[in-house]
Predict the structure.
Amino acid sequence: MYKNKTIYLDHSATTPVDKAVLKAMLPYFSRIYGNPSSIHNFGQTASIAVSRARKNIAEFLNCEAKEIIFTSGATEADNLAVFGVVNALSKSNQGKKLHVITSAIEHPAVLEPFRKLEEEGIEVTYLPVGKNGAVNLETFKKALKNNTVFVSIMYVNSEVGSIQPIREIGEIIKKINQDRAGENNKNKIYFHTDAVQALNFLNCGVKYLGVDLLSLSGHKIYGPKGVGVLAVKAGTPISGVQLGGHHENNLRSGTLNVPGIAGLGEAIKICGKNKEKNNRNILKLRNEFVARARRLIPEIIINTDIKNSTPSHANISFVGAEGEAILIALDLEGIAVSTGSACASASLKASPVLKAMGVKDEIAHSTIRFTFGRNNTKAEIGAVLKILPPLIKKLRRMAPKL
């Protein structure tokens, strides 16, 4: 173990809460405990914190504060985007079969709602990705149909870090919508992106991207768990999927998580201030790690496209060693990594993302995802690379020969 300290390299799963974020949250657990929907002073003081956070998030996303809908996290935000928009469009297009598009490597919070829509009679296209883990624009264009009304493509894949051409897709959709308007076609295409893994690293302005809806989560940006946002462009047809009140423009019933919202508002403010500096530092660490790993460990495959990924990700297959065994062995040394998405970590199946990229099952099973954060150091990278080569060598010797 590195100087009796755990080395955390799983920032794609979650990030530690920033000290300034925790400080911003603490008053709303005890001293300022009112319900923000209450009219009395206790409630209105809490409501001010919610409004402040809403303003911070809107500034970061370059949208209006009224377009920010607070949720319990990105899973709820994704579900609200998919079901909310498609349900609303189904009501206004009764009797017409609708077509929607997503990619084969989306987070389950998007894929599973699309599968549910498919069961209900909606036509769904699941776009393939190339070996670099990215959607091809020509393939996307060919998938579009006259009855296409909704598209959801994630900005950054959580497993390999591949960046999708969201802005370019947004331009394509904008052009189609302009043509449709000229033909009096009321079936505009609405565009959603899950930007959870992009927020720390990329431009997430909704106007820049050309999206109508964008999902994000607090715990990926050094904020709290249990809070997220769906940004919904004004005029987007969407119906609530959670009933029981009139919160968040009637789209998300439930008492607001004031401490979480206050923390998210502070986290996104910090994220916006320090993005470029953090990106440079993280990129330097990631690239050094990958380069040295290539030199020190034979027969490894870098699944992350280093030229088209976030600076955080390094998805590596250690051929001949079992991924779960590597993870456990590293954990015993005080090094935290993952074998893929945290939401699918209990599954023994080969990663659907790697399979979609053309990676064979036996290679996918030998894969570890290293994701770096702003608190990691060069000394930590050195410590990991001192432990990793002999560990892989040992596990390869122990592996059954086929």
